[in-house]
Design goal:
The protein is mainly beta. The chain has no helices and 18 strands. It is elongated, with a radius of gyration of 25 Å.
Length: about 200
Amino acid sequence: NWRAAMFINQTNVQCTTPPHHSGQTALSISLNGVDFTSIANTSATTFTFRNGPSIERITPTFGTILGGTTIKISGQRLNSDRNNENDLYCRIGNSVVQAFKKKNENNEDGTVLYCTIPSSGNIVPEPVEISTDGGKIYSSNNHLFQYVINTRVTNINPSWGPDVGGTTILISGVGFIDSKDLKCRFSGLRNQSMNIKRNDIR
């Protein structure tokens, strides 16, 4: 199974690997497409195909262009190759940030990682990928994180109600979207929102 190579200089060429089942394969080079270098079964000329990191889901899937959203990445083989968490990276579009595990979670099987999304100047979806080898090789699952404009509240009506609760208020602002996770927070207390209408939340 051969691939075209790119000449760099008299001592280096570059090739891109084809799809291949997991395992070791011997590498040889041809200059004329007919004669290949002899295969030496040494570690210096052996390439190993293995299962890399794989992303199955990210949550949440959108956040503000200001950045700072922490996303949870669920998948397989998300542990560091060298058992070094400094080797874990997230790539969001063209931006690369450190990935991390939460100290209070038992995640020995390598199925969960977290990343803090960087800021962006564009309201566009960006693919999220993971590297477990220090940023050399990334996953290729193409799960998308959607950047949205920064949400702001500009007015609430009415502005007060009885302490027993139950008052329906209209919240006006910018950047609201129809989301199953839409919520209001009152001094640290969370309550599910409903009835989205353009720039208003009731």
